[in-house]
UniProtKB/TrEMBL annotation:
Signal peptide: none annotated. It comes from the Bacteria. It is a multi-pass membrane protein. Keywords: Membrane, Transmembrane, Transmembrane helix, Transport. It comes from Paenibacillus auburnensis. It holds the Pfam family MFS_1. This is Major facilitator superfamily (MFS) profile domain-containing protein.
Length: 409
């Protein structure tokens, strides 16, 4: 009973971290572009803020995992929440381009410190209890709760922005800082393994280890193809829906809430399947095929009803894929470098996403949006092929998850 009690406490703790993080993120995300515009920042300058934010996140994210493994996953997550909250507060009251850029850099630093740290802390706590398998059930379930909190964040942003436009961002900042204090004082920390005295040497050595790890290379490749499809959705659905299908702008907010609700339901469904011993590979594969079918519907039929239905299918499949894949890959990541490798995957995926976003912009400008949806569906199917190859060639050929740390050239 004591083990079960500890597991529940750790699960609730991780759930609180991820839920408050997602709530604050949606509060910020609902108004930040409009807020910058109202403060006199023109579209080109907003693009500059975006670019600085993306590049600084890629720069900070890569070494953040090393810091987390060396100095404590929970400690770095708490510092990250505080840093992110401070950046949000500065963003809420910024009134010129320089302050918006500075706040974006601070927020990127905070997000980088958070990236992967809560999950790495939690997985190792489960490992200490001998309950690693339960992650396949509990992580999708937590994703369901987190998506539900995103709906709360969107609704709270709508209400508070009617009072003042900066208020949702300010509330997000205060919530993040409050969460940092809670995380700092709750539970003990855990660490990875240090091999070098100098942090720069540590980053170099772990980078070499990461690139030599066959499993991580294929995980990264699969992640990039999946991320490409998500980028198509994020960059295209609003513009395509409004400009091509003549959806009313006011309808977009309603759709966003529907999408988050669908993601929540699909995550709970994945947890239900995992609890009944359906393999993570099957859940990921089925979810990816559902997402690809949704994107094909969106691209094949220029009809608003079919378009919305296709995107709902995409979101449902995405919820199944992302929640199960996030749990499954933890079996492949060496415990001693769990946060380091997680941050490396995140950073490299973000860098690839930056390039993919530019390519998508060029393609959509010259060919229109129809081809984009087909490319996104094809990208998802390629990601499944990579996943099945990874599963067959490495895991079924004798490279068990426990041996992932030794799966190097």
């Amino acid at each position: 009973m004591e083990r079960l009690h500890a597991h529940k406490q750790y699960s609730i703790f991780l759930g609180i971290m991820l839920s408050v993080y997602n709530l604050a993120d949606k509060l910020y995300g609902a108004v930040y572009i409009v807020l910058m515009s109202r403060r006199g920042i023109d579209p080109l300058q907003i693009s500059v803020v975006f670019a600085v934010s993306s590049l600084s996140l890629a720069v900070f994210d890569y070494p953040s995992g090393n810091l987390s493994d060396l100095y404590g996953r929970k400690k770095l997550a708490a510092i990250g929440f505080f840093t992110w909250g401070a950046g949000l507060c500065l963003f809420a009251f910024a009134d010129n381009l320089l302050l918006f850029i500075v706040s974006a850099v601070i927020m990127s630093l905070g997000v980088a410190l958070i990236s992967g740290s809560p999950q790495a802390w939690y997985i190792d706590k489960l490992d200490d209890l001998g309950m690693m398998e339960y992650k396949n059930v509990v992580l999708p379930r937590l994703n369901g709760f987190v998506s539900a909190f995103a709906i709360v964040g969107a609704l709270l942003a709508t209400l508070s922005s009617n009072i003042h436009l900066y208020l949702p961002v300010a509330i997000a900042g205060v919530a993040a800082i409050g969460l940092s204090i809670y995380v700092w004082f709750r539970f003990s920390d855990n660490y990875g393994t240090r091999t070098e005295d100098n942090i720069f040497k540590e980053v170099y050595v772990t980078s070499v280890d990461f690139t030599r790890n066959k499993l991580m290379r294929f995980v990264l490749l699969k992640s990039i193809f999946s991320h490409a499809a998500l980028l198509v959705f994020l960059l295209s659905w609003q513009v395509y829906g409004v400009n091509e299908l003549k959806l009313p702008v006011s309808f977009l907010g309603v759709l966003l809430i529907v999408f988050m609700a669908v993601m929540s339901l699909s995550a709970f469904f994945s947890s239900f399947l995992a609890k009944r011993k359906v393999s993570a590979i099957k859940i990921i594969t089925v979810g990816t095929f559902i997402s690809a079918a949704g994107l094909l519907l969106a691209g094949l039929f220029p009809n608003p009803v079919i378009f919305v239905g296709g995107l709902i299918l995409f979101e449902f499949g995405l919820g199944m894929e992302s929640s199960s894949f996030g749990a499954w890959i933890q079996d492949l990541i060496p415990r001693s470098k769990r946060a380091t490798f997680s941050s490396g995957l995140s950073s490299l995926k973000s860098l690839a996403g930056f390039i993919i976003a530019l390519l998508l912009g060029l393609i959509s400008e010259h060919t229109g949006y129809s081809l984009i949806w087909f490319l996104a569906a094809a990208s998802l199917l390629i990601s499944v092929a990579v996943l099945l190859y990874l599963n067959t060639m490495f895991l079924r050929s004798g490279t068990a998850p426990a041996e992932a740390e030794r799966a190097t050239i």
